[in-house]
Each structure stands twice: as structure tokens, then as C-alpha cells.
DNA sequence: CTCAGATCCTGTGCGC
DNA sequence: TGCGCACAGGATCTGA
């Protein structure tokens, strides 16, 4: 379940192995992902150097000479560095062999991921163009959130998970952020005070930053191992703890389904703003 | 336009 | 022990 910190960790983990290397072969075993893998992607990439590795939201971008590889890990995708000669594992849909005797392996059991080869400016592609600001950038601040949420009846949890509002926040970090901000997940986005928007933006930045720094401690796992980024060692305060006592006040944590996602919250620590009740 | 809910897919973990 | 089913979720699509 990669969210932004896992994608950033992945980016940092693979970059040293693939930057400035030449793609000697790209093997696609399964092209049915969220969108079909670009046709003839093998011929398009072969022989090109990887000039840069970037991240935008949950998308990774490998800049090549004549185009860009746009990669999304979906919810079960993972990238790993392996020796070129090791056999593909189950669900390893794409292997990118490099000229330094390593290869980048993409596995994705649930196939919600994405591999596209773009020749145009990738940031003008519709998938990236419509993305909201990076949550760790200065563009994501309380003024932006307050203005964007103004008049919205949509609940705040769905709102911050909408990548067009802010890029890269999934169920785990949305759930944790709202708990730490003391905001009930069903609060209409437009009902948040300026103060709540400030708290929420600060908490989101802090929690993402923290998760990235934790992920950074497991970077070596990207080489010849299971490649699982480090969020498993993150201490989650509410996510996955439905029915267990709140670590702050001991109330039993509740859960409501929001857009088919479990949303765990503390009925005591998280409340609706007074002005809408 | 807005927003809630369904949808894609398969491994995991639970109950019986 | 083994089977079957509910559940997990990012982003998009549908329909009210």
C-alpha cells in the first residue's frame, strides 16, 4: 500500500542503482495494469540512458533521452533492484535490465499500477496536470486548504485523499493525520476553521516527513531483498486499531466506512467543529 | 458541478 | 487441516 512516503523511499532506494545507466532490455510479462502498458515500450526504451528520477505525488518519473517512463505503484506495486541474472518472481510483471549488471524489478500482485512511456512533457499529461500540490511543498498550506475546502460538503477525509486536492495522501496517512489534528473524519471539508486547516496542514507535513525519515533507514532493503519500504515499522496510532483503546484517552476507537475505506477514529479526541452542530 | 459508491485485482487472515 | 469468503486500497468511472 504505497503512499507518498513509500514512493519517496522507493525513489531514493533505486536512484543510486539506475541513474545514468543504460536500459539494455525491458521485459514486460503482464501488460494489463490499471492502464495497458504502452505498446512497444521495450523498443522505445532500449538503449536509452536514465537521466533523472523524479517523484510527483505517487508517480515516479524516469527521464530518458527521448521520453519519460511514468510509473505508479498502485496499491501492491513495488520496485526492487536485483542482479540481472536472477529469475523473475511471481507477479514480477516488468524487468528492466541495465548495463551495470543490475535490473529494476516491478512486481504488483493486484495490478493497480501503471507503466507509461510518454514523449510529451510528462507534467502536461492529464494524469499529472490535474494533481494537487505536493503536500510537503509550500504551496500546500492552511490558506490553500481553507480556500479549496470552502463551501465543500464532502467529508474532510475523502477531501484530503483526493489527489486533485493534495497529491499522495492515502487511507493510512489521512486516518493518522485527522486523529493527530483532533478532527472527526466525517466533518464536512467546508466546515473547517482556518485554525483547523492550519493544524491539519502542519500535521500532514510532519507525519509524511517522519514516515520518509523512517523509510530512509531501510534503504538497503532495496537491494536483493523483499524490497518492502519501511512503513511497516511506523507506529500507527489509530489506523488498523478499531476497537482498541485510544492511546491518548483510552476510549475505544470506532470506525466508519468512507468511500469503501475503513476510517478509524477516536470518538473523544476527534470531534466536529462546534459551529456546524 | 458535487459527491457517494462501485470498480478493477489477488494475497491475507479469519471463522467454521 | 482446509475451505471459503470478506477485506484491503488509488484513482477513475457512474449515476443520483
What report would you give on this structure?
By secondary structure, the protein is of the alpha+beta class. 26% of the residues lie in helices and 21% in strands. The protein contains seven helices and ten strands. The protein has helices at 4-18, 41-45, 126-129, 142-149, 156-161, 171-181, 194-215, and strands at residues 23-28, 50-56, 59-64, 68-72, 78-83, 92-98, 102-107, 114-118, 254-258, 261-265. The strands form three sheets. Strands 1-6-7-5 form a four-stranded antiparallel beta sheet. A hairpin with a 2-residue loop joins strand 9 and strand 10 (261-265). Helix 4 packs across helix 7. The longest helix has 22 residues, at 194-215. The radius of gyration is 20 Å and the shape is elongated. The two termini are 35 Å apart. The model is unreliable at 217-221 and 223-233 (pLDDT under 50). The chain binds a DNA duplex (16 and 16 nucleotides) through loops.
Give the number of helices. Answer: 7
Q: Report the radius of gyration as a whole number of Å.
A: 20 Å
- Mean pLDDT over the full residue set: 88
- How is the main sheet built? 4 strands, antiparallel
Labels describing this entry:
alpha+beta, 4-stranded antiparallel β-sheet, 277 residues, 21% strand, DNA-binding, 10 strands
Summary, kept brief:
This protein has helices at 4-18, 41-45, 126-129, 142-149, 156-161, 171-181, 194-215, and strands spanning 23-28, 50-56, 59-64, 68-72, 78-83, 92-98, 102-107, 114-118, 254-258, 261-265. By secondary structure, the protein is of the alpha+beta class.
Amino acid at each position: 500500500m504505497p503512499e507518498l512516503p513509500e514512493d519517496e523511499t522507493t525513489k531514493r532506494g533505486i536512484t543510486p542503482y539506475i541513474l545514468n545507466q543504460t536500459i539494455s532490455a525491458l521485459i514486460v510479462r503482464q501488460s494489463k495494469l490499471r492502464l495497458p502498458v504502452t505498446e512497444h515500450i521495450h523498443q522505445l526504451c532500449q538503449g536509452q540512458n536514465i537521466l533523472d528520477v523524479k517523484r510527483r505525488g505517487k508517480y515516479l518519473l524516469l527521464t530518458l533521452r527521448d521520453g519519460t517512463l511514468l510509473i505508479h505503484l498502485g496499491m501492491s506495486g513495488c520496485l526492487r533492484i536485483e542482479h540481472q541474472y536472477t529469475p523473475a518472481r511471481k507477479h514480477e510483471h516488468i524487468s528492466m535490465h541495465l548495463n551495470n549488471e543490475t535490473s529494476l524489478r516491478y512486481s504488483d500482485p493486484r495490478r493497480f499500477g501503471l507503466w507509461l512511456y510518454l514523449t510529451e512533457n510528462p507534467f502536461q499529461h492529464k494524469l499529472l496536470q490535474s494533481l494537487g500540490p505536493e503536500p510537503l511543498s509550500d504551496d500546500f498550506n492552511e490558506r490553500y486548504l481553507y480556500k479549496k475546502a470552502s463551501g465543500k460538503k464532502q467529508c474532510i477525509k475523502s477531501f484530503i485523499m483526493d489527489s486533485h486536492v493534495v497529491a499522495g495522501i492515502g487511507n493510512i496517512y489521512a486516518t493518522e493525520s485527522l486523529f493527530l489534528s483532533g478532527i472527526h473524519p466525517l466533518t464536512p471539508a467546508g466546515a473547517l476553521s482556518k485554525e483547523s486547516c492550519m493544524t491539519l496542514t502542519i500535521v500532514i507535513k510532519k507525519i509524511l516527513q517522519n514516515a520518509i525519515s523512517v523509510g530512509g533507514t531501510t534503504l538497503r532493503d532495496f537491494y536483493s531483498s523483499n524490497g518492502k519500504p519501511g512503513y511497516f515499522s511506523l507506529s500507527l496510532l489509530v489506523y488498523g486499531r478499531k476497537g482498541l483503546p485510544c492511546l491518548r484517552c483510552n476510549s475505544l476507537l470506532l470506525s466508519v466506512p468512507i468511500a469503501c475505506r475503513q476510517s478509524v477514529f477516536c470518538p473523544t479526541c476527534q470531534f466536529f467543529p462546534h459551529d456546524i452542530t
